[in-house]
Design brief:
Elements lengths: L3 E6 L4 H12 L2 E7 L7 H10 L4 E4 L5 H10 L5 E4 L6 H6 L1 H21 L4 E7 L26 H26 L8 E7 L1 E3 L18 H9 L6 E4 L11 E2 L1 E3 H18 L3 E6 L5 E2 H12 L5 E4 L8 E2 L4 H7 L7 H14 L10 H5 L1
Parallel strand pairs: 1-2, 1-4, 2-3, 4-5, 5-6, 6-11, 7-10, 8-13, 9-14
Antiparallel strand pairs: 9-12
Helix pairs in contact: 1-2, 1-8, 3-5, 5-6, 7-9, 9-11
The site of nicotinamide-adenine-dinucleotide has 27 residues, from helix 1, helix 5, strand 5 and strand 7.
Length: 366
């Protein structure tokens, strides 16, 4: 029995693919749109291998409103969207900000217009902890609650903040319009999910993060060190005010993060909260040295690193206060850093070329 239908933009990407899996396993019909800018359609085979179900897929750029219209036309049952498609590299966003505004902001505008035309009223949006900027400027706001004033510090963060605002204005206006017409307006809802640092892979070892270019996040870089693609990890600064001098982040297992999307969507559908932001994090901070240690343990040997200067734009501490999601969504991150590191290592060992190679034989023959 299908419980609902969801359009997942960016659904072949890292977080999108794991959320598609959670949705398929919860008996949602899943339709993916992605232009494969940073992903591979091999993900569809892996989703089918794990779940026994294959999502429908359209190669589609979200800035192509006509194509989005066609997808909605072909699937009139879609009544929810989970919106991942975006450019996401903080450093690059400073070099080509207009590309970031085009995909992240204009692409979302196209999506919302297309949703409006097709009466699709629930949207779950991939926001980011980056909207808080340097929350350490408010010492009483660490770990960071949703009430923390927003203050992104780079063009990528500005696009996420802008889209949060755009979605809020749109949903509130649709609710008000419906109320003026004597209806409740309850159908229009948005979840603004602010993720902290996603980590890990599927425990089967056949689904994981496979960035197309040079990775810039800590764990994919550590994985490259472990397989010898990179000589050592450069640790960006050991002069922060933390227990070991390195910066603190909240690393959340990708399966917990995906589950967070499922429960947020179910909450929109059953509780009709209007627009609501939720942090998806563990509430537990780990330093860069903690991460090197945890991943080295998973790999079974010490991984080489060298401390260098701080990276521009980095902040001391980005740890979530996840209490709101715990209470309102009944969601809590369950998996540990050790789980994330063990799963990431299994994926890296099994798939040194990422999705560019066949899955292990036992999966094909199973
Ligand atoms: P990802 O790059 O793996 O996934 C994004 C997907 O969007 C990719 O499959 C890419 O091909 C697709 N895409 C890009 N431009 C597109 C376009 N114009 N039209 C259609 N598809 C397009 O990234 P991810 O880590 O899975 O991130 C997913 C979302 O979560 C993004 O919105 C990102 O900003 C947000 N986010 C990510 C992190 C993180 O650390 N990974 C943290 C917070 C928020
Ligand atoms: C983690 C820690 C680095 C690489 C970014 C975005 C954020 C969100 C998640 C999308 C930091 C240190 C890293 C390396 C290192 N993405 N590090 N050596 O910067 O916390 O967050 O991704 O929304 O918006 O800013 O993640 O993985 O890059 O870094 O020492 O080679 O590891 O300094 O302390 P970050 P990260």
């Amino acid at each position: 029995m299908v419980v609902g239908s969801v359009l997942v933009t960016g659904g072949t990407g890292y977080i999108g693919s794991f959320t598609a899996l959670a949705l398929l396993e919860a008996d949602y019909k899943v339709v993916i749109v992605d232009n494969l800018y940073n992903s591979s359609d091999e993900v569809l085979n892996r989703l089918e291998l794990i779940s026994g179900k294959r999502p429908q897929y359209y190669q589609c750029d979200i800035t192509d409103e006509k194509k989005l219209d066609q997808v909605f036309d072909e699937h009139p049952d879609i009544d929810n969207v989970i919106h991942f498609a975006a450019l996401k590299a903080v450093g690059e966003s400073g070099e080509i900000p207009l590309a970031y505004y085009n995909v992240n902001v204009y692409g979302t505008l196209c999506l919302l217009r297309s949703m409006q035309k097709h009466n699709v009223t629930n949207i779950v949006f991939s926001s980011s902890a980056t909207v808080y900027g340097d929350a350490t400027r408010f010492p009483n706001m660490i770990p960071i609650p949703e009430e923390c004033p927003l203050g992104p510090t780079n063009p990528y963060g500005n696009t996420k903040f802008t889209v949060e605002t755009m979605i809020t204005d749109y949903v509130n206006s649709e609710r008000a319009k419906a109320q003026k017409e004597g209806k409740s307006g309850d159908a229009f809802n948005a979840a603004l999910l602010r993720y902290f640092n996603p980590a890990g892979s599927h425990p089967s070892g056949i689904m994981g993060e496979d960035p197309q270019g040079v990775p810039y996040n800590l764990l994919p870089l550590l994985a490259q060190v472990a397989v010898g693609k990179r000589e050592k990890l450069l640790v960006f600064g050991d002069d922060y005010k933390s227990k070991d001098g390195t910066a603190i982040r909240d690393y959340i297992h990708i399966l917990d993060l995906a589950e967070g999307h499922l429960v947020a969507l179910n909450h929109l559908r059953s509780q009709h909260p209007g627009v609501r932001a939720w942090n998806l994090g563990t509430g537990k901070g780990s330093t860069v040295f903690d991460m090197i240690k945890a991943f080295s343990t998973a790999v079974g040997r010490d991984l080489p690193y060298q401390v260098v200067g701080r990276r521009a734009g980095d902040v001391l501490d980005l740890t979530a206060n996840p209490t709101r999601a715990n209470k309102e969504l009944g969601w809590k991150a369950k998996l540990t850093l050790e789980d994330a590191c063990a799963d990431l290592w299994r994926w890296t060992e099994n798939n040194p070329q990422g999705y560019r190679q066949q899955p292990p034989k036992e999966f094909i023959e199973a």
